[in-house]
UniProtKB/TrEMBL annotation:
Limits of the AMP-dependent synthetase/ligase domain: 1-199
InterPro entries named in the record: AMP-dep_synth/lig_dom, ANL_N_sf
Key word Lipid metabolism present: no
Protein name (record): Non-ribosomal peptide synthase
Lineage: Bacteria, Bacillati, Actinomycetota, Actinomycetes, Kitasatosporales
GO cellular component: cytosol
Amino acid sequence: VAVEHRNLVNLCLDHREGLFAPHAEDGRRLRAALSASFSFDTSWEGALLLALGHEVHLVDEDTRRDPEAFCAQVADGRLDLVNVTPSFLRELLAAGLLAPGRHHPRLLLVGGEVVDTATWRDLCAARDLGVSAYNMYGPTETTVDAVYGPCADSPDRPVIGRPGRNLRAHVLDGMLRPVPPGVPGELYLAGPQVARGYLGRPGLTAARFLPDPSGAPGERMYRTGDRVRWDARGRLEFLGRTDE
């Protein structure tokens, strides 16, 4: 996927205002755990955090494979930000990431997988410990994090949230017509985080990156292949893949 600098700039500005600044006490820089492999798109977060003046603490491969060691690094380093998949989060919770009497990250981000109901309840309950948990959604084709929201705002069921800064989400039927709230449709994402396309694959690029009917001339939207629906509060609920 060919991601441009301007795509990352929008992601950086969005996270600065929507995630990092509200959780940096008195303007203090955040201490973030960078646990993603550099072959995984969320590893871009490290460069963005550094560009914004925050600290990045690398989690080595051995620690990443050991939930107890990971939790110890978070506690001993008094790290503020942890970003992991829901499946790894379950292992971290079992190893004591949010155990009473120890340091907790103030910002907990999960993404890359569907969040099951039990894990969602744990994420919502984390607010009582002073932890803000967010569900992050977005394919590489829209520069990783395109839709997100605080878990505690929806304690009854998992949602993926709302589009980020300058981004637009369209829920469309098979004829590319918008569907009303509560009705399932396919998710299309538009805005300045939509990537250039697939390098050297013009046919696939044309099939997945379509003209955005609500955008300016030349703007495109990305067809995610994910089934979603809007809820009554303007949040997106993930329902599965269109090919399932």
